[in-house]
Amino acid sequence: MAVSRGRSGACTTCLRRRKGCDQQRPTCSQCRRACITCEGYPDRSGVSFVDATQRTIQKAKTVRRPRTSREGSTASVVKHVRAMASNDVLAVKATQSGHVDLFWRQYLPNGREIPCDVAHSITGGWVHTVQSLYRSEDSVLQGILLALALATRGYCDNIPSARELGLRLYNDALAEASTVFQLPERAKSNSFLAAVRLFTLYESHYGAQFKLQSSASSGFGVPTQAENWLTHINGDMSLLLARSPSSFIEGDAHRLFVDGRFHMIYLEIFSALATRKPTPLASPEWLTIPWSKHSKTSRDQLLDILAHLTCIVSATDDLSLDLSSGTLSVVENLSSIASACQSIDERLAAWEKEFAPEAIRLLATRSSDLDAHLSQATAPSLTFHELAATHLMTLFWASCLTLAQVQQDFCEMTREERTSPDRYLTDSGPCFRNLMATLPVLFEPTVGLYRMHVASAPTHIAVRHLHYLPDGAERQEAQTILRKCLGAPASKNLRVMVRSLLQKSPADAKLVSLLQGLE
């Protein structure tokens, strides 16, 4: 329900600056445009939010869905929530806004908006974009964001009814999205692309709800999460490719593109759920045109290197088939892959020389005490710039390990044909040790639910790298670090997601044992 607390609904910053405030949550667009910190909405704001009662939530759950129209589109998901207070529209909007506001505070690092000068370096710009597009009244976007908010409240505060309603809203938003995919104009909108990103986010955090009792289950309880996550990533890719690179040059579209392409590239490298192939985003037009009006950040340049690495992964898979079938093109492919690996290695070394020193300088003051990082009471304060530096360097070291894994697979595959091993500038040993020393920062309590965005990929790559380490002290130490990070209560969603990905790859399945006993 909504309770009046005063006249002005403006944020504290706009009130002090005497500026008009549009009251967007968790921060207003006035502050975002000015690139200043929005101090949020104190108790003087127009409405305070109180959870719906058990009776109203139950009422929402039992509302019958309206019939679809002739075009086949489903009714707005938000109508389910309107049933909470069907005769009080203001109370409904207040309740929705309150849940969404609380979600952003639980999701964002330190519970605060990521500053503009940092957001573009750590995939944080999409948060600003979603807030802006949320006001467009797009029913799919509103529905999935509210589903996320309710699910998060349900899991964080152990409210089963909120979890159930969040799942229902998710399913309804998904049904409506399937219809929108058939409507080209709407499917190409920025708001729908943002909604698909939120489907992916929901799946990564709460996909374990889709527990199916089938023969495909391996006993760990999440047999379908990785597939559902993959489906949304593929849908995201199809929406991008349905538009030209020139449609992502500026504004919300540019931010959605540059912040979202990592998971698509990551998918092509590590997915055991689909044929690994070069990402279309590695083509020259997709690597240049979207930046016609913007300079590439250090993160953008690192993702360019990873995009080219997908070509090597695909070529290595093809080489494996050639070797097994005795195809005459083996020698030519060997030379091409070795040359490509050398080129990627040189680019990584050049990137490290240009960008790593400043990032490492910011990390130099972080404590090396693993247990201190993971404790709510003793974790050192984490600034946004330190978080950005940690994200950037863990992504770099994970990229180096990815190349090393591809190289080692290549060497083992061609043991008899290869006579003189290449010398590489990038040494996987120090990279792995640096990653293990820095990864705990991303598991600090203040990182919040945002951890899934910045820690899932480097954690997955680190766990996979145990394949390539001999038994010994380094491997045992790495396993201890990973178990402590993933065993923290706040890391449950990430742990379940990594476990689901490992289960779907025959080569990685044995590593699932590393995560046993952490529930």
UniProtKB/TrEMBL annotation:
The keyword Nucleus appears for this protein: yes
Respond yes or no to whether keyword Nucleus is given for this record: yes
Identify the PANTHER family for this entry: ZN(2)-C6 FUNGAL-TYPE DOMAIN-CONTAINING PROTEIN-RELATED
Q: Classify the source by domain of life.
A: Eukaryota
Report what the protein is called.
Zn(2)-C6 fungal-type domain-containing protein
**Sequence ranges assigned to domain Zn(2)-C6 fungal-type in this UniProt record:** 10-38
UniProt xrefs under Pfam families? Fungal_trans_2, Zn_clus
Q: Which UniProt keywords apply?
A: Nucleus
